[in-house]
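From the shared-data thread, chain only:
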Amino acid sequence: MASSEQQALVVDVVIPARNCAGSLAPTLAALPPRLIRSVVVIDNGSTDATAQTARDAGAIVLRESKVGYGRACKRAIAHLERLPRSPDVVVFLSADGSDNPADLPALLEPIRDDNAELVVGSRPSRGRGSAGNRVAIGLIGVIYRRKFDDLGPFRAIRFPALVALGMTDNGDGWNVEMQVKALVLGLRIAEVPVSCRDSHESESATRTVRSSISKTGRVLFQILRHSTAR
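Structure, as tokens:
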């Protein structure tokens, strides 16, 4: 039987999406409806049917025409702050099909049972896969004395903690900024294993390389930027 904390927890899911119409429908359909209040999809400058796909699935659709993962997330936070009842927890989820919505209960468990404030989904097969991730995780360990297994996008955070972090990154440095700032503020952080699937969306090789270089730069900037706050 669920505890009163489990029953009372208000959870909203935030999904930034850009040209992910093909993967968004199955992602939304797989979310466990009894655990969440609403799903907010931020259409981040899509040129396909991403927005309509989200509406057809019953999601709240916001528009953020300026491209950037962090910018889309901030658009969602501004929306949630204006609600008559803000959520207790916000879950961030990828729109490209790489995150498995079936892992959402496990992601919420440390918040419900162990008073965690931030829970990061750790992908065993992908967490240290990229060179950029390995460098970032190692650097965080050296500077902040905390070993993370991953910097993945599938994560849950208590909404008051999220607001207190004062997130600023407009791009791909968003996730690492959240983890580093959470360390600086002394938030209770947990990691739980989650599965990772192949993305249903594809990019050209040139675009992928450029995106990877840009993301690595943003990540390293956020790690070093907040190190002086300790």
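The mean pLDDT is 87.
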